[in-house]
Inverse folding.
């Protein structure tokens, strides 16, 4: 130990100084190795990103190719596809491919589902986030998440075996397969999605905002409705749009409970066929895998894809518009 | 306002602090220290807990009306807890409970039957971090009045302008009342929060370290404002900053480990404290 050191530090530390000095002098891990590893990690990350991009691209490609061959068929015209409300792809002589019948079915089921899932989900989320004591919250939240884990085919049976008889008991006009029953089941299916995401958004609102409002003499209801919900609006809207996208794409419930007659109706007592319902019927039925009716499945899928894509894009726009920084 | 122990009406006796008075810290409070005051909040034998942890031990303290009372002490000494019992902000913490009495005039602040909504209208609070709502400047100030009063559009505009003027931020925001409050600087946001609290017409303003998130220039502006505001309001300020307590308060209470060690005129507490602990703290030996 040098004398200069002993002046600066107490002598008993000298030993430690020497030892740490040696540690610090040890050669660093090989720069080459570090760089090589970084390159490998970088490549893996890029590959993972590209993979999902590739799959998406492939799906769009297949959909587009088959859709084009659908429209090349003599039996189909753009005017018929986008201008007609008669969807009748199977009957030989009078084939008609009016997509609006299927869109109408999808919209009807989605609208019924959302009229249940959105208000109920948001109210439950507000209750859980702002009102519920911790004990209640700790019980209710997992229960709701269990609801999300139930296979959709179970909801389908539930709709057919439970909801439909109840509806028929309430009103005799309901047919065995009907839009209302499927819509209600889809709504219950989407409820946990709305609730869980909206609750996350509400919870993310800083405590300071709540205290600020309470400090002004706001009641719990004032705080929830006038401060917390507006502050969480972008998150709540994303939750809503995600639920809508899920309802539009839901297949099993509508295949089981909504029926298989494509008709442009707004009557929830009638049976309807959704876009997804038609695709299931096509893909699992005994239809030959060529011919216009087969290719129509791809055209419907492509339309559905464009619809959900538009929904996502609108969602991003809306979210950006309503995004509110807290700090 | 109900003040049963009115000794004298001295609202006119308080003089504005001279701008250059900052250097001579205690110049302003010398005159008032001897003046009789009115009681705003009376605390008697208050004990408070968070769960099993006792945060306050048998606190008895008088908060004089139209004065600035500073609560000082090291972190965790209970000063914020006391402040948050004044307007029952602790109700939002499930484990918090208290025994003893805190009175605002005739109102028992701790009673279960006390209407906290009305109480918080009478006792406003400004927090450590500026917490404007993600709304426009106007809507922030109008939030309280809209909750409590039935006002026409023009009446509401009057209230907002009045509160913003009181909070000395009107000139900076008058041309952009419709723009988001979060676009303001930290100091402006804090004055906006003060305006928001004033706009419901409170008797008492509680301030929980109102300048600790602000830069020195904003701190100066807010301190000046606090000193001005005591003409109309009783102010209780919790602060870590002893210079701040010395600069802008009339009465200082020193807390340590949940106990009130000493309370008195700010001049006395900072120059001739009775307790050794107080002297050690205000002279910077610990804390």
């Amino acid at each position: 130990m040098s004398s200069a050191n002993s002046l600066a530090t107490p002598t008993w530390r000298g030993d430690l100084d020497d030892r740490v000095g040696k540690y610090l002098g040890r050669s660093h891990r090989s720069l080459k190795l570090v760089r090589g590893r970084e390159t490998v990690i970088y490549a893996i990350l890029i590959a993972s990103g590209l993979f999902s991009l590739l799959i998406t691209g492939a799906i769009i490609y297949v959909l587009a190719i088959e859709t084009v061959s659908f429209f090349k068929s003599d039996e189909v015209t753009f005017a018929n596809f986008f201008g007609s409300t008669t969807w009748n792809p199977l009957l030989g002589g009078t084939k008609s491919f009016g997509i609006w019948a299927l869109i109408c079915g999808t919209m009807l089921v989605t609208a019924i589902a959302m009229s249940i899932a959105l208000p109920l989900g948001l109210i439950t989320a507000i209750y859980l986030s702002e009102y519920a004591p911790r004990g209640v919250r700790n019980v209710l939240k997992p229960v709701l998440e269990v609801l999300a884990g139930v296979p959709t085919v179970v909801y389908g049976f539930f709709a057919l075996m439970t909801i439909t008889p109840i509806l028929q008991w309430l009103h005799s006009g309901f047919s065995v397969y009907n839009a209302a029953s499927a819509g209600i089941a889809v709504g219950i299916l989407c409820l946990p999605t709305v609730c869980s995401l909206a609750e996350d958004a509400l919870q993310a609102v800083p405590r300071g905002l709540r205290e600020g409002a309470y400090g002004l003499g706001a009641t719990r209801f004032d705080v929830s409705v006038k401060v917390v919900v507006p502050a969480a609006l972008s998150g709540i809207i994303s939750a809503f749009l995600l639920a809508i996208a899920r309802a539009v794409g839901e297949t099993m419930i509508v295949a089981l409970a909504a029926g298989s007659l494509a008709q442009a109706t707004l009557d929830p007592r009638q049976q309807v066929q959704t876009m997804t319902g038609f695709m299931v019927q096509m893909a699992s039925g005994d239809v030959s895998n060529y011919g216009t009716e087969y290719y129509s499945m791809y055209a419907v899928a492509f339309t559905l894809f464009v619809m959900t894509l538009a929904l996502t894009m609108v969602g991003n726009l809306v979210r950006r518009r309503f995004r509110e920084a807290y700090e | 306002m109900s003040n049963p122990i009115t000794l004298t009406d001295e609202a006119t006796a308080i003089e504005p602090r001279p701008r250059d008075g900052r250097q001579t810290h205690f110049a302003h409070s010398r005159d008032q220290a001897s003046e009789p005051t009115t009681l705003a909040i009376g605390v008697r034998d208050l004990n408070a807990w968070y769960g099993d942890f006792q945060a306050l031990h048998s606190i008895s303290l008088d908060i004089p009306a139209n004065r600035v009372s500073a609560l000082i002490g090291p972190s965790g000494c209970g000063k914020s807890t006391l402040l948050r019992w004044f307007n029952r902000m602790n109700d939002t913490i499930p484990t918090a409970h208290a025994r003893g009495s805190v009175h605002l005039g005739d109102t028992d602040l701790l009673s279960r039957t006390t209407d906290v909504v009305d109480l918080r209208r009478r006792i406003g609070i400004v927090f450590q971090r500026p917490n404007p709502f993600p709304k426009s400047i106007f809507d922030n100030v109008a939030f309280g009045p809209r909750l409590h009063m039935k006002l026409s559009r023009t009446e509401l505009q009057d209230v907002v302008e009045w509160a913003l003027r009181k909070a000395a931020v009107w000139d900076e925001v008058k041309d952009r009342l419709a723009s988001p409050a979060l676009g303001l600087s930290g100091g402006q946001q804090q004055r906006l929060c003060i305006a928001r609290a004033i706009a419901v017409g409170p008797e008492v303003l509680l301030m929980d370290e109102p300048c600790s998130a602000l830069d020195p220039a904003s701190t100066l502006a807010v301190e000046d404002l606090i000193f001005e505001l005591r003409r109309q309001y009783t102010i209780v300020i919790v602060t870590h900053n002893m210079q701040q307590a010395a600069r802008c308060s009339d009465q200082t209470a020193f807390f340590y480990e949940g106990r009130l060690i000493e309370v008195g005129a700010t001049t006395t507490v900072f120059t001739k404290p009775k307790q050794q602990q107080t002297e050690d703290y205000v002279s910077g030996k610990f804390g």
